[in-house]
TrEMBL record:
Organism encoding this protein: Popillia japonica
GO molecular function, one term: nucleic acid binding
Protein name (record): Integrase zinc-binding domain-containing protein
InterPro entries attached to this UniProt entry: Retrovirus_Pol_polyprotein, RNaseH-like_sf, RNaseH_sf
Domain of life according to the entry: Eukaryota
Cross-referenced Gene3D superfamilies: Ribonuclease H-like superfamily/Ribonuclease H
Length: 126
């Protein structure tokens, strides 16, 4: 069981939680922690994967000046999910196509000064 939950090398907490979903025995957390601490792969990358500090974004002066946007694909439909940094208001729009033009068409509050997003298809340059 320990090898099964640790095979993806996702760390101690992930492996313990995964194991507890399947079964439970006394000392489960300790046994998994000890096994992972002896794993050559985990030892090699453990220090390199330190948690990054949380960064705070400055609060903008106006609504929809800075937004965060992400995309979802649900039931064969593309959606944009936009969040205003100022008000924390969230807007969900269905998109005809998952491209830059469709995203621009749903920016009903004007073009923001800053857009935060992971590199989703509408924002890649290819």
């Amino acid at each position: 069981m320990i090898n099964a939950v640790h095979c993806s090398h996702q760390g101690i907490n992930f492996s313990v939680n995964k194991a507890k979903q399947a079964c439970l025995w006394p000392g489960i957390s300790k046994e998994i922690r000890e096994a992972i601490e002896c794993s050559n792969i985990c030892l090699r990358f453990m220090k390199a994967n330190n948690k990054q500090p949380i960064t705070q974004h400055p609060i903008p002066d106006l609504h929809w000046q800075n937004i965060v946007i992400d995309f979802a694909y649900i039931n064969k439909t593309d959606y944009s999910v936009m969040d205003d940094y100022y008000s924390k208001f969230v807007v969900l729009h269905s998109l005809r196509k998952n491209d830059a033009r469709s995203v621009i068409n749903v920016l009903h509050h004007g073009i923001p000064d800053e857009v935060m997003s992971d590199i989703d298809p509408p924002f890649d340059s290819t």
